[in-house]
Write a structure and sequence with these properties.
Elements (H helix, E strand, L loop, with lengths): L4 E4 L9 H10 L5 E6 L11 H8 L6 E6 L7 H6 L4 E5 L6 H10 L3 E6 L17 E5 L14 H12 L5 E5 L7 H6 L4 E4 L1 H4 L7 H10 L1
Parallel strand pairs: 1-8, 2-3, 3-4, 4-5, 5-6, 6-7, 7-8
The chain binds D-xylitol-5-phosphate and zinc ion.
D-xylitol-5-phosphate (DX5) binds next to strand 2, strand 8 and helix 7.
């Protein structure tokens, strides 16, 4: 079976103690740090920008998995590369020039990802499979943490796995992931599990190792 990575989403962290929260999930066993960037335009919420990300980047060596819910996104690629992103994921729905955007990410020396919303078919990424390192299948409509997993995502994950085949592309799932659905999601083909509210819960640092381990062992 394929290696599984857990990527806690710091959208559900306590923003007043963001650097401590990032250090805490690192120590708790996170594989990647998932960073949700929301622009109040592509999605109906605003999170934070590259300056905030850069200021917490130094507290961990773990890869930063940056999910840009931004349109247009091209003007911000360089800033997030400079702020310490390792993977930069953009939405297939965010603009007409997806291939150009992916080339810009790789030109920065970063891994490139494409995200698809629940209403977007997997076939939307068929033409860019040679240009991506990660395919993010959204299991909620992006914009907020704490939403319920959309069951039809399992079928989309199976389609994504069939499309990707044995290419070196990670399949990431994001939204409503818990220890209760992680097994089904893994069986459907996901290898990277984003988890916001199910890791951060009430922001009680001492529970993070157990919460991450529960998803991993499921
Ligand atoms: C949703 C974000 C997710 C979100 C996940 O727009 O992309 O990363 O933080 O949060 P949970 O795990 O609570 O659904
Ligand atoms: Zn996300």
């Amino acid at each position: 079976s394929r290696p599984i990575r857990i990527a806690p989403s710091i959208l559900s962290a306590d923003f007043g103690r963001l650097a401590e929260e990032v250090a805490a999930i690192d120590a708790a066993g996170a594989d990647y740090i998932h960073v949700d960037i929301m622009d109040g335009h592509f999605v109906p919420n605003i999170s934070f920008g590259p300056a905030v990300m850069a200021s917490v980047r130094q507290v961990t060596q773990k890869p930063f998995d940056v999910h840009l819910m931004v349109a247009p996104v091209d003007p911000y690629i360089a800033a997030f590369a400079k702020a310490g992103a390792d993977v930069i994921t953009v939405h297939a729905e965010a603009g007409p020039h997806l291939h150009r955007t992916l080339q810009a990410i790789r030109a920065e020396g970063k891994n490139a990802g494409v995200a698809i919303n629940p209403g977007t078919p997997v076939s939307a990424v068929e033409a860019v499979l040679d240009d991506i390192d990660l395919l993010l299948v959204m299991s909620v409509n992006p914009g907020f943490g704490g939403q319920a997993f959309i069951p039809g995502t399992l079928d989309k994950l199976r389609q994504a796995r069939a499309l990707v085949g044995n290419r070196p592309i990670e399949i990431e799932v994001d939204g409503g992931i818990t220890a209760d659905n992680a097994r089904a999601v893994a069986d459907a083909g996901a290898t990277v599990f984003v988890a916001g509210s199910s890791v951060f819960g009430g922001n009680e640092t001492q529970t993070y190792p157990h919460r991450i381990a529960a998803i991993r062992s499921a």
